[in-house]
Write a structure and sequence with these properties.
Blueprint lengths: L4 E2 L19 H12 L2 E6 L2 E6 L2 H9 L5 E3 L1 H9 L10 H13 L3 H25 L8 H18 L7 H23 L13 H27 L10 H11 L9 H29 L1 H15 L15 H13 L5 E6 L3 E3 L2 E3 L4 E5 L50 H18 E5 L7 H4 L9 E3 L9 E5 L7
Parallel strand pairs: 1-7, 3-8, 9-11
Antiparallel strand pairs: 2-3, 4-5, 5-8, 6-7, 10-11
The structure holds protoporphyrin IX containing FE.
Length: 480
């Protein structure tokens, strides 16, 4: 019979944790502490004791017991409420369920097939853009390219054809997102108790950007309402916003019942940086692993022949190797590294008594690199996801690959994110050769820009018919 222990009996980091000014790297502090204290320990932050968890089984238990036993971390929710970005991520209980159902319905595969047309157009535009750069392609910043692509694709999926938008709204929707994402990253990390919002210098610009974006969203909602109420109600649904509004109406709800405005902003903010960052990490891993690149090229050449991109939505399912490379990148170098929750009641975690209100830091990326969960865990091996028999690469605990989270609150955008990533990666690998050229490491100045997606890639261009276009990445030290 196991003996019940108090949370105070867990290993405890002796000193209060002081955060670095670079808040986008907060996870590193916890991951380093896990190396020292094991997979369950506590740390003290200012006035608050936090429990840190890195064990795959316990993590799965926690994420699957939402919303009954665990909810979102309330300090985080208060910050997001204050800046009016409180939608599904901060919702709990019945409110969360209602919002989740509407959002999940807008990501069903029947709609993904429609959004695919928008994705295809954005991927073609990206390819044409790179080709027109000619020799100057070497000068451009691949981070900005991929990030710009991600913003453009998810904004178009949400609002429909961007060309139909008034120029000032389009500008606001696209360029504000660029600045917003890095600042919001800092705001979210400001949830840690000793952080103070007043210390974030961009506050004013941030409030302004949020306000402008919310106005754009409200205008778009009004625009979609007109379309849905008009004669072309029977017309083909193209935008995610229209799908959301139709579903809300079908369920007999009002927009404010599901915080539609806030959730549109939250969906854009949840989709764009994560997908761009993951894509950059995949490109880096492909550049680092020639076998992965060759396997993908064989797959896309066999599927596409001379075509430069995927035409048919049904073909996306056939991209098994790209799928495996994305999964492996997310296992070894995930961009989502921690989730914060709060115990809603007194409960037992294994043999530990956890009091109601305890904040828990879930190290969802750490367990993907744990030798207990994956054979040669530190080695990039995309084929581990494709082997029919896992016996040759045991252990293989797919429940420890938590890049999209797990359970009822796992990422509802997973299918859409995979669709976007697979479509653009197929185009890149069919047309370009990705190569890593060690150059000067990124300067401290570049690294201190607080861009979570900052991976320091550059592009070089050569005509495909003579050889391949080369995408080159600078040496970086913090991807894995
Ligand atoms: C590669 C890209 C992406 C990654 C790595 C990612 C990762 C995650 C993770 C780790 C969570 C937390 C899961 C949990 O707590 O168990 C999450 C939640 C969420 N994601 Fe994503 N995500 C991505 C793309 C997207 C996209 C494209 C959308 C929407 C279009 C989206 C919308 C959301 C929303 C709304 C939530 C909150 C769900 C809830 O609280 O019920 N994500 N995502």
């Amino acid at each position: 019979m196991s003996i019940i222990k108090k949370i105070s009996e867990l290993p405890r980091h002796p000193d209060p944790v002081i955060m670095e000014p670079d808040l986008t790297r907060v996870h590193e502090i916890f991951e380093k502490l896990a190396d020292r204290h094991g997979k369950m320990f506590t740390v003290q932050f200012a006035d608050q004791l936090m429990m840190v968890v890195a064990d795959a089984k316990i993590l799965n238990f926690i994420v699957c017991k939402r919303p009954e036993l665990f909810g979102p971390y309330r300090r985080n929710s208060r910050i997001l409420e204050a800046i009016k970005t409180d939608g599904i991520e901060t919702a709990d209980g019945h409110d969360w369920k209602r919002q989740r159902e509407i959002i999940a319905a807008s990501m069903e595969s029947i709609y993904l097939a429609q959004y695919f047309e928008t994705i295809k157009a954005a991927v073609e535009a990206l390819r044409n853009r790179w080709i027109t750069y000619g020799e100057n392609l070497a000068e451009i910043n691949l981070e900005a390219e991929i990030f710009g692509f991600s913003i453009s694709v998810f904004t178009s999926i949400m609002f429909g054809d961007m060309a139909d938008m008034p120029a000032d709204e389009r500008e606001a929707a696209e360029s504000l997102m660029f600045n917003l994402v890095s600042v919001l990253g800092k705001r979210i990390d400001a949830l840690l108790p000793q952080m103070h919002l007043e210390n974030i210098s961009e506050d004013k610009d941030f409030e302004e950007a949020i306000k402008k974006l919310l106005t754009v969203i409200e205008n778009r909602i009004a625009h979609s309402r007109n379309i849905l109420a008009g004669n072309n109600k029977t017309g083909k649904i193209r935008s995610q916003l229209q799908v959301l509004m139709e579903t809300i109406e079908k369920e007999g709800l009002a927009n404010h019942d599901v915080k539609l405005t806030e959730n549109i902003l939250q969906l854009l903010l949840a989709a764009e940086p994560t997908t761009a960052d993951t894509l950059l990490r995949v490109l880096h891993c492909i550049a680092e692993n020639p076998q992965a690149q060759k396997d993908i090229q064989d797959e896309v050449y066999a599927l596409l022949g001379d075509c430069s991109h995927i035409e048919d939505f049904k073909d996306i399912k056939k991209l098994k190797c790209i799928d495996a490379v994305i999964l492996e990148t997310m296992r070894i170098a995930s961009s989502s590294r921690l989730v914060l929750v709060e115990a809603k009641t007194d409960l037992l975690l294994e043999d530990i008594e956890v009091p109601s209100g305890t904040p828990l830091v879930l190290l969802i990326a750490y367990c993907g690199l744990d030798a207990e969960n994956f054979h040669q865990a530190a080695v990039f091996d995309h084929r581990r996801w494709q082997r029919e028999s896992k016996a040759e690469s045991e252990p293989h605990n797919s429940k420890a690959a938590l890049g999209f989270g797990a359970g009822p609150r796992s990422c509802p955008g997973r299918g859409l994110a995979m669709l976007v990533m697979k479509t653009v990666l197929a185009m890149i690998c069919a047309n370009f050769q990705i190569r890593r050229v060690p150059e000067t490491p990124l300067s401290n100045e570049t690294m201190s820009k607080h861009q979570p997606f900052s991976l320091g890639f550059t592009l070089k261009f050569r005509d495909r018919h003579h050889d391949f276009i080369a995408i080159e990445s600078r040496e970086i030290d913090n991807v894995y």
